[in-house]
Amino acid sequence: MKANIKSKKAAGLSEKASDIILVVLCAVILLIVAYPLYYVLVASVSNPYDVYAGKTFLFPSQFTLEGYKAVFADEGILTGYLNSIKYTVIGTVFSVVMLYLTAYPLSIKELPGRKAISIFFIITMYFGGGLIPTYLIVKQTGLTGTMWSLFLPGGVGVGNMIILRNFFENSIPKEMIEAAEIDGASKWKTFLKVIIPLSRSIMAVMVVFSMVAYWNDWFTAMIYYPGDENAPLPLVLRGILIKSSASASQSGMISGGYAELNKMTEMIKFSSIIVAALPMLIIYPFVQKYFEKGFMSGAVKG
Amino acid sequence: MKKNKAAMTGGAVSAPVFRQKPLKKRILNSWQLYVMLLVPVILTLIYKYIPMYGIQIAFRDFKTGSMWKAEWVGLKWFKRFFTSPNCARMIKNTLLLNFYGLLWSFPIPVILALMINQLRFKRFKRVTQTVLYAPHFISIMVVCGMIRIFLSPSGGLINLIAGTQIDFLTEASAFRTIFISSGIWQDAGWGIIVYMATLSNIDTSQYEAAKIDGASMFQRIRNIDIPELVPIMVLQLIMCAGGIMNVGFEKVWLLQTDLNKATSDVISVYVYQQGIEGAKYSYSTAIGLFNTAVNLLLLIVVNRIAKKLSDVSFV
Questions:
Q1: Which tens digits make up the pLDDT trace of A2-35?
Q2: Which of A6, A194, B74, B182 has the most CB atoms around it within 10 Å of its CB?
Q3: Which helix (H) or strand (E) holds B190?
Q4: CA closest to B37 among chain A residues
Q5: Cβ B292–A240 below 8 Å, yes or no?
Q6: For B133-154, how does the pLDDT look when each residue is reduced to its tens digit (9 = 90+)?
Q7: Best of B37, B59, B143, B285 to disrupt the A interface by mutation (most A CBs within 10 Å)?
Q8: Domain with B234 in it: what CATH number?
Q9: Residue B20: CA atoms inside 13 Å, Cβ hemisphere, count?
Q10: Between residues 99 and 118 of chain A, which touch chain B (CB distance below 8 Å)?
Q11: Where in chain A are the domains?
Q12: What does the alpha-carbon distance between residue A160 and residue A298 come to, in Å, rounded to a whole number?
């Protein structure tokens, strides 16, 4: 490659120049995307008055961890955190099991009715009953007010199911399945002993997608599973971030009067954002390299 | 891609060898597979298909009791919606918010993907992708919290930088800009994946050949990358058109204030307020159905146009 560039001097120069311009442009975009998060991170360990005075554009001012202490001392937030962990774990297990149970049979070409069943699922991607009819059915089946209302109505994530199905079709050698079946393994056994171990990478992606969806979801909980004691973290944060109200436990906790309470409320805003966003931001880079692969097989939906 | 497409739409490209076994035997052989499908199918039937059937309450007067027995009222709820004072405003806001959103957020991931694909430093490329993906993994609730903090009139980041004290969320004229730009921040990076995956199909020898011919980076993008992306771009555009009436309810709802309603009043929020908060089930379902109908219509129209123009179609 280098020889080529040298052989055409003019092209070589502009090649280098365009490389540099490209890197600079990308670096600027990187900064634009990352800065809001960085700013919140810095603000979360600074004195909020300095934040609002514009003293924390780059570095913290009057470093403090008070905000984080307050977040973890807040009963509402703590309950929300635990709820979110619980919903994320159960929901992810449920969703990934559903995905596998659907994608594997539909990846087997000789399954009678395969096309019809695929269409049965795919239709739900583009057409649905809408908010109220779904709400009423969830209510009538007795799920409203139980934790299961967060998982069951979602059913099968069809987009992810297609990605997984295409993975089974394209990336698992047919010979492995046939060999297992010739050895007398039942379809279940093949599924457990061949398919699952061979699909660990894509399973990691599915697990992360499901985790993110459940960790970040609040609307489902708001309409189907009401009650402060059931609220997942984002719903708890709604009071703090959107309505800007100090929770009762906070007001009771702080003795320094209104000014101190106000300061605390602001600090909690910043630190709760970090606390809520961090877990998923730590997890996704581990499976990042599989994203494109997954989408390559799932890009053409329909 | 062609192969995938066949597998996708096909489903039925079964090997002829298996056709020779009698159907009954094949069904019996596959009983375990049907058992696996049982729970997913039942859940989908109950929570996806019965609600579709339940759309009929848009034409009934349903309050309590059985959804299937309420009195038929024809188009009453549709008439009520179209004569309600804010109807025109809601339709206009919904369409404009999406149209402007599409105008900005559709090309940006394409441009980003083309740029990142040309990056030659592997590690920098990876870091760029990691950072660009990050906002996608943050809850809309948290993003809206950040928006509120940044736009706060007293010491919000934007006001600090601009040296002003504007309460942007009470300005109807600022709402679309806030909604769309934050949306780009959150999802443009994630949007590149589809295009990156497509670009990774390109044979690198094509680039080498172009370089030997003296093609600049810009020319390589124009003549190699963009033609490769066109089919998937058309496909994405068709899908966007089918969702033109679907405004992300959550974000609008979280950013709406009494003072920015002139531009933030959209159908999906109204559906929620009437249906869940107001328990006007039939009325809300009717509005939702109108929304879906417009979406489907647009999907079909754009799909037709795309088929004629570029031979790429979706259904």
A1: 444 444 445 555 778 888 999 999 999 999 999 9
A2: B182
A3: helix B172-199
A4: A102
A5: no
A6: 999 999 999 999 999 999 988 8
A7: B37
A8: 1.10.3720.10
A9: 3
A10: 101-102, 104-106, 108-112, 114-115, 117-118
A11: 2-64, 69-229+281-298
A12: 8
Say yes or no: domain A69-229+281-298 is CATH 1.10.3720.10: yes
Which range has the worst mean pLDDT, A183-187, A290-294, A297-301?
A: A297-301
Residues B48, A191: C-beta atoms closer than 8 Å: no
Identify the burial level of A127 via C-beta atoms within 10 angstroms of its C-beta, where 0-12 means exposed, 13-18 middle and 19 or more buried: middle
Owning domain of residue B283: 77-137+187-310
Instruction: Point out which residues pair with B72 in neighbouring strands.
Output: B60
Could you report the per-residue pLDDT of B25-74, keeping only the tens digit for each?
888 888 999 999 999 999 999 999 999 999 999 999 998 878 888 889 99
Q: Do B121 and A240 touch (CB under 8 A)?
A: no
Q: Residue A3: closest CA among chain B residues belongs to which residue?
A: B212
Lowest-pLDDT range of A1-10, A32-41, B82-91, B215-224: A1-10
Q: What pLDDT is recorded for position A252?
A: 53
Tally Cβ neighbours within 10 Å of residue B205: 8
pLDDT at position A217? 93
DSSP A228: G
Q: Give the number of domains in chain B.
A: 1
Separation between Cα atoms, residue B155 and residue A20, nearest integer Å: 37
ipTM summary value: 0.87
Q: What size, in residues, is chain A?
A: 302
In sign, the C-alpha dihedral spanning B82, B84, B88, B90 is negative
Could you identify the residue written with the tokens 């037709």?
B304
**Full-model pTM:** 0.86
Q: Please name the residues in contact with A203: beta carbons below 8 A apart, sequence gap of 6 or more.
A: A96, A100, A196
